[in-house]
Amino acid sequence: LQKLIHLLQATDDPLIQEQALITLSNSAAFSVNQDIIRNLGGLSVIGGMLSDCVPKVKEKALNALNNLSMNIKNQEEIQVYIAQVCRNVESAPLDSDLQLAGLRLLTNMSVTSDYHHKMINSIPCFLHLLSEGTERTQIQVLKVLVNLSADPATTRHLLRAQV
Question: Where is the Armadillo repeat-containing domain (predicted)?
Fold first, then answer.
């Protein structure tokens, strides 16, 4: 895992980055690896890939963070990327794999109300995706919206959003 994280830092080759991110994502399916990746500084390295200009690299980084977000300590570090993930969801092509990867991460990050306030500004985007997206997108957006609606403070923003 340490070598994969170092490889991500050392290369600019998008194909190598994609493969390293896929491997880290698969490794993060095991809870013991989630802690190891965090302790090696992997969350910030993977999070840094969200600003990459190659959509496939961003998508793979989102998938890795999604798997890593199943851990409360990891969520504490991943939450700093929520605004960027929301921007990626908003700017990604409609119904793209990149957009869906971002929505999946936001679903996990919105299970508790700890980070709802960081998603409030994206509610109009979520509602737009709900009306314009395909069924896959709609289902993922609904998961985020259901999680947000469980928080009374966020419910006000949901009901006041311009549709």
Answer: 1-163
Residue that terminates a domain, selected from 48, 78, 108: 78
Do 46 and 104 fall into the same domain?
no
d(CA 16, CA 50): 16
Q: Are residues 84 and 158 in the same domain?
A: yes
Digit-coded pLDDT (tens) for 124-151: 999 999 999 999 999 999 999 999 999 9
User: What are 54's two structure tokens?
Assistant: 């190659």
Contacts of 163 (CB under 8 A, 6+ apart): 124, 127, 131
Q: Compute the CA torsion angle 26, 29, 31, 37 (nearest 10 deg).
A: 30
Whole-angstrom Cα distance, residue 74 to residue 24? Answer: 14
3-state secondary structure of 162: coil
Q: What whole-number distance in Å separates Cα of residue 47 and Cα of residue 66?
A: 11
Based on the fold, state whether residues 62 and 112 are members of the same structural domain: no
pLDDT at 163 over 80: no
Cβ–Cβ < 8 Å for 24, 16: no
User: Are residues 52 and 84 located together in one domain of the fold?
Assistant: no
Residues of the domain holding 22: 1-78
